[in-house]
Structures are given as C-alpha cells and as structure tokens.
Design brief:
4 helices; alpha+beta; about 40% helix; single chain
C-alpha cells in the first residue's frame, strides 16, 4: 500500500511538472553548416577501407535546392594503399555520389543542380 501511494504521488508530481513546462519546439533549429559538414565527412570516412586516409578540401555545405548537401573534393587511399587524387563528391541525406562512380560529365551535372558554385 505504501508503494502504491509513493507511485501515485510521484506520478502526480511528474504530471504537474509536465503540464507547466513549455512544449518542445516543433520548428527545427537553424541549419548549422559546420556540424552538417562534419557529420557528412564522418559518414563518408566510415564507408572507406582506410578512413584515416581521407583528405577533404574545398568542401562547403549547400542549401541551394533546399536540401542540404556537402559539395567538395576528397582524396583517399585505395585498396593498393595509394592515394587516388582529389575527386569531387556530393553528399547528403538523400545522395552520396563520387566522381569516380558517376563519371565526370554526370558529376558536373549534379554539381550544377545541387551545389552553390561550379567547378
């Protein structure tokens, strides 16, 4: 009986606390390009056979088409332990393309569509 009373009191206190606290905002916070780029780079690294070898340059977060993506260049070691040279990439929640996989012409098209600047 004592345990039930303690639980009812605790539940009541939590209910009152929840009713006076403002609800969490439904509006997403401001876009943080630095945090977004770091998260995308981390995700790209995780997919490489030698994550520590990845070197990024000229990367920037783009919201040109209202969907955030990171556009930049990456150089990493391949399976023979040699660097492949800097290649363009586009990475976001709905896309992850590398110039090697898509070809130069297709990457140029993606770059124009998704990135703020051209290369």
């Amino acid at each position: 009986m004592l345990v039930a009373g303690v639980l009812v009191t605790l539940f009541g206190a939590l209910f009152i606390y929840a009713s006076i606290m403002p609800p969490p905002s439904k509006v997403p916070g401001p876009f943080d390009p630095i945090r977004f780029m770091a998260a995308e780079e981390s995700d790209i690294r995780a997919r490489l056979s030698d994550p520590e070898s990845a070197k990024f340059r000229n990367d920037s977060a783009s919201t040109f088409r209202k969907v955030p993506v990171v556009c930049g260049e990456i150089n990493f070691k391949n399976s023979t332990n040699g660097y492949v040279g800097f290649r363009r990439f586009v990475s976001g929640s709905t896309i992850r393309q590398f110039e090697d996989a898509t070809g130069s012409d297709e990457m140029s098209r993606l770059w124009l569509i998704l990135c703020d600047r051209t290369k």
